Amino acid sequence: MTRDLPLPTTRLYFLDWVRILxxxxxxxxxxxxxxxxxxxxxxxxFAGTGPEPFMMMSSPWRLGLLFFIGGVAASLMLxxxxxxxxxxxxxxxxxxxxxxxxxxxVPPQPYFEVVEKLGYSxxxxxFMRLYLQAYNGFCREDCLILPTWNHLWFVAxxxxxxxxxxxxxxxxxxxxxxxxxxxxALLQGWKLVVLPAALLAAARIALVEHYxxxxxxxxxxxxxxxxxxxFVLGALVARVPGFWSRLAVLxxxxxxxxxxxxxxxxxxDAVTHDxxxxxxxxxxxxxxxxxxxxxAWSAVVAACGFAQRHLDADGxxxxxxxxxxxxxxxxxxxxIVVLAHAMxxxxxxxxxxxxxxxxxxxxxxxxxxxxxxxxxxxxxLFGLAPQRPQGLKDAAQDGTGAGPxxxxxxSA
Length: 412
Hints:
The chain is mainly alpha-helical and 412 residues long. It has helices at residues 13-33, 52-55, 62-81, 83-105, 108-118, 124-132, 153-172, 174-186, 191-207, 221-237, 243-249, 251-275, 278-310, 316-343, 350-372, 393-396.
């Protein structure tokens, strides 16, 4: 039996857990990027196609899920705290870590990229001088854009979307809640899965061939469609009482659709050029693009539905991980790149090496968090709120930290 959660006084603990688990999945995914044939900053000598079907299991939906949760958090905090106050706090909590990350945390990633791909040998200090000068000479097929935000693009996009949402709510006023109510009335039963998936599919079919993902804001229209639409949908349904129990009812059906979509997607990737003629590929491609979008949204529904049914609980683990997850996110990809490059001369078997990378990344990330959360000057650099008395923490933190339902942590 599922439960409807009243708004806005009850915390949506299950969304905290979804977000925490999604970021742990991100560590696994970025570790996997070292071993697949797809381009990435550094590559294993053992890289190949074997792990790619498992990577495809999360790649269509993971970030859409996080943007969906981000929309929920931003919408409810805007209603609770007011537009100007919330957007000001959110800008500090997102932009300070973004700038710090681009200047301090991210640079080792492009450094080791040019070391491995271009044979750069002048050392990290010389590279940083070029990095800060926006040097444009590290080129192979394309030129490396410096400075870069790499995996922190999510933070930049979340800030942009939150500002747009704040402006939209300020302009619409009470009409936003009426739009949310109509959206909630429409998204019932099978329509909850089919209608958002169809919207995402239509956008992806129209855009994907013309606007490949670049994470550069400008011209990144396919990525915006697959990210901003879930964000806006999250902002709308956040204000619909009883919405979350609908996801729990549909969790198994949504999981089945997602599993079927993943199967079709993997088969398509495996046999496209061996079985189908170019003409057949052109005909079938829109259907597979649509299947990708249906898999993405169905997985979001399934994840939130299972979490609402089984993970709607608080405890010390949730409170600790909820605070830790943003600093861990900021640090994890740089740790993976640095550790992977350092381990290459050891020639460890790829399976054992991958396990070591994951364990070391998690261990060092949380060890760093233990330092960060205790040092006042470091906390804002990693998106943490100022330290408060223990009894006031949950009530005081805003939308990038823990807090009540209207402030589910969503900073990335």
